[in-house]
Amino acid sequence: MSQPDNLLIEHFDDGVSLITINREARRNAISASTAIELQETFAEFDRSTQRVAVLTGAGTAAFTAGADVSDMPELWRCVPSVGITTEKPVICAVSGWCVGGGLVMAMMADLLVATEDAKFYYPEARLGTTQGMIAGLAARIPHKVAMEMMLLARPVGAERAYQAGFVNQVVPNGQHVEAALAMARELAGLAPLVLATLKRFVNEGVLSHGPTEHFGNTRRAMEVVAQSEDRKEGLLAQREKRAPKFIGR
């Protein structure tokens, strides 16, 4: 796998991959190119023999400050189970601020490790805009806590998030990546077919999906067709007035 401009990627021999959003000067804000790089990196991870991915942000001040407003991304691209499609486990390791779209990314990951100083903040009600995918939070933690985070736009600390079931493990500041890697290595030693099956059953049959999730899934599916070799062949065959030879990819 190549090393993108905005990410650091490490692959370990035990089947664990560490993917770091490397924009510390911008509090790891997600730019348009960062969202695409995350989507492409996870697609490569899914095709590889690696078994578990840990997603984190550079430094300790922020997992991510959310969308980079100076270079707005299509955030659906880097959201697990929407733009990022893999049946392998994905763990988020959060330190400091986890804001906006970053909170959605953490919400949609399979497991989450956070430092004691982590703060989860969804400010869209204060900004007058929303993409709506945060609605899925109400399917993952108690309804009233989810509504508090969405409607009141108040930061929620790591301990409260842990008590609400949003965070799996709270660790001392600076130890989030180490703890997430330990969790990933535990998962990497378990039966991958069982993990994939359980994750698929949960995502397809247990968790509800809001309209924005469906939109993202539709966009991803249409892009597969739009970028396929078959589409290129079909258009070329039409121009050359011959029967197309489709290969299914």
3D architecture notes:
The radius of gyration is 19 Å and the shape is globular. β1 and β2 form a beta hairpin. It is α/β, with parallel strands linked by helices. The protein has one domain: 2-enoyl-CoA Hydratase, Chain A, domain 1 (Alpha-Beta Complex), CATH 3.90.226.10. The strands form two sheets. The chain has a six-stranded mixed sheet, sandwiched between helices. It has a four-stranded mixed sheet with strand order 4-6-8-9. It contains nine helices and ten strands.
Topology at a glance:
Blueprint: E1 7-11, E2 16-21, H1 32-47, E3 52-57, E4 62-64, E5 90-94, E6 97-99, H2 101-108, E7 111-115, E8 119-121, H3 124-127, H4 143-152, E9 156-157, H5 158-163, E10 169-171, H6 176-188, H7 192-206, H8 211-226, H9 229-239
Parallel strand pairs: 2-3, 3-5, 4-6, 5-7, 6-8, 7-10
Antiparallel strand pairs: 1-2, 8-9
Number of domains: 1
End-to-end CA span: 21 Å
> Based on helices, strands and strand pairing, what is the structural class?
alpha/beta
Q: What is the H/E string?
A: EEHEEEEHEEHHEHEHHHH
Our count of helices gives: 9
CATH class: Alpha Beta
- CATH architecture, by name, is Alpha-Beta Complex
Helix content: 25-40%
Cα-based radius of gyration, to the nearest Å: 19 Å
Spans of at least 5 consecutive residues with low confidence: none
Instruction: Let me know the average pLDDT.
Output: 93
The backbone outline, from C-alpha atoms, is globular
> Which topology does CATH recognise?
2-enoyl-CoA Hydratase, Chain A, domain 1
Protein name: Enoyl-CoA hydratase/isomerase
GO molecular function: lyase activity
GO biological process, one term: fatty acid beta-oxidation
Keywords: Lipid metabolism, Lyase
